[in-house]
Write a structure and sequence with these properties.
The complex is a heterodimer.
Chain A: H1 14-38, H2 54-81, H3 84-116, H4 124-145, H5 149-181, H6 196-237
Helix pairs in contact in A: 1-6, 2-3, 2-5, 2-6, 3-4, 3-6, 4-5
Chain B: H1 2-22, H2 24-43, H3 48-80, H4 84-89, H5 94-124, H6 131-156, H7 164-188, H8 193-222
Helix pairs in contact in B: 1-5, 2-3, 2-5, 3-5, 3-6, 3-7, 5-6, 5-8, 6-7, 6-8, 7-8
Classes of the chains: A mainly alpha, B mainly alpha.
């Protein structure tokens, strides 16, 4: 009956996913050791630990942007090729990206408070992150409210592509706007160069978040693939 | 190209004739806009010094909200009356349908925006009779209608309906809102091309990019 499941799924096999999860867990543990053990204290004025959220904030923001790129790319490919594989990638990437952007925004606020004495800095990066997070939420809600999976997939693809096209405009507008309106607030630790240990830790954290993203996308895509196979089987039975 | 324009023009003429006869959208949306402007008077102290700071923001919040209300009806009306299928079966290309809907939506929005000029003048002593503001409003409204027409076609087909449009629309047009508010700020302050021009060019660039993108994407949105 295996042939009844329709075209073979291209999603990563169970063994591959377990291996990925294992490696990601290991990398995450090493990263935590690096962040709290290896990286030096940045600024005595801020206290010992506060600055370390930087190793969560910066990588999550960068990986969030990457997730948006992956989702938009998957959306374009889906509209061209119309294969479920690309839609699953775009969808899973949007879900993982929403979570990772949430981490970036939350840690950004916690980081901004001691450094700039305010929870939110209205700069171009923050505005862009927040905007893409909203586009992702719109993407997921569009899918949830769509009458059929196919129509939801097409509409959501359009939403992701529009979001990607708006990125340079949002960045430019927010940058000009910030230049007009916000006075640069400075506080302890607002400026400063990265020591090499800090730089290595940051790069490793970036890789760690990359793994987190890959695990989430692989799991979600595989889940969707199985759901689709079940649906195909059910339709054949009834 | 001729067929494209003729089809777009026919749909535009149909929408405008419908609106001219019923005046349903314009009257409801205009009343809503006036209420928003009135409420703003109590949301903050409407003294001249404060209006000078928040004036452009009030104008654009009112315009964006009323725009969303109007755009929600663009395809919802067609859907409710069952005329959307007819529209799609008509011997015109999807691009024509999109262009016609876009221009009629923008026209209705511009009429409402212009009708609000005296309201802002009376309530807030905010003089919008200004060539530069007119150009900013025109460019920004075309940008809103470009993105809004496409997303209203999506929203009209979902169960969420009215809720979905602002959710999809606002993050994408954020650059236009920033540009419109900043451009209005400069225009009201009496600056000319030197400071308004930058924002105007920016909004026009946005309009151009999303006009092409939306015309392309409209086909995917309406596909059954």
């Amino acid at each position: 009956m295996a042939s009844a499941a329709g075209p073979r799924s291209r999603a990563m096999g169970l063994g591959g996913r377990q291996l990925l999860l294992g490696v990601a867990a290991l990398v995450f543990m090493i990263d935590l050791v690096l962040i709290f053990g290896y990286a030096p204290t940045a600024s005595e004025a801020l206290g010992v630990q506060v600055q370390r959220i930087f190793y969560f904030h910066v990588p999550s923001a960068i990986v969030g942007m990457i997730s948006f790129g992956v989702s938009a790319f998957g959306s374009v490919m889906y509209l061209i090729k119309r294969t479920r594989k690309w839609d699953r990638l775009a969808w899973a990437s949007a879900e993982a990206g929403t979570i990772i952007f949430t981490v970036a925004i939350a840690t950004g606020a916690i980081w901004a408070k001691p450094v700039w004495q305010t929870w939110w800095v209205w700069d171009a990066n923050g505005t862009l992150t927040f905007m893409l997070w909203l586009v992702f939420i719109g993407y997921l809600i569009t899918r949830a409210y769509a009458p059929t999976v196919d129509r939801g997939a097409r509409w959501a693809a359009v939403v992701a592509i529009f979001g990607a096209a708006a990125v340079p405009f949002v960045y430019m507008a927010a940058d000009w706007w910030a230049g007009l309106h916000t006075e640069r607030v400075t506080g302890p630790g607002a400026s400063g160069s990265l020591e090499s240990e800090m730089f290595y830790t940051l790069i490793f954290s970036l890789v760690t978040f990359g793994f987190l993203f890959a695990v989430l996308v692989a799991e979600r895509s595989a889940q969707r693939s199985i759901e689709e196979q079940i649906e195909t089987l059910r339709r054949e039975v009834t | 190209m001729r067929n494209y324009l003729r089809g777009a023009l026919a749909i535009y003429a149909k929408d405008i004739r419908l609106e001219a006869r019923t005046k349903e959208t314009i009257s409801a949306v205009l009343a809503f806009a006036i209420i928003i402007a009135f409420i703003f008077g109590f949301a903050f102290d409407p003294s001249p010094a404060i209006v000078a700071v928040v004036g452009p923001g009030i104008v654009w919040v009112a315009y964006v909200f009323t725009g969303i209300l109007g755009m929600n009806r663009t395809f919802a009306l067609e859907r409710d009356r069952g005329t959307l299928d007819g529209l799609l079966l008509a011997p015109v290309s999807r691009e024509s349908v999109y262009a016609g809907k876009l221009v009629s939506t923008a026209t209705i929005m511009l009429v409402v925006e212009a009708a609000l000029f005296p309201v802002f003048l009376v309530l807030f002593d905010l003089n919008l009779f200004n060539v530069w503001f007119g150009l900013v409003a025109l460019a920004a409204t075309i940008g809103f209608a470009t993105v809004g027409t496409l997303f209203s076609a999506i929203a009209a087909h979902t169960r969420a309906r009215e809720v979905l449009l602002p959710l999809l629309f606002l993050p994408i047009v954020l650059p236009v809102i920033i540009g419109a508010v900043s451009g209005t700020d400069a225009a009201i302050a009496g600056d000319g091309w030197d400071s308004v021009g930058k924002w105007l060019q920016f909004i026009v660039a946005f309009d151009a990019v999303f006009l092409v993108l939306s015309s392309w994407a409209f086909d995917f949105v309406l596909e059954e």
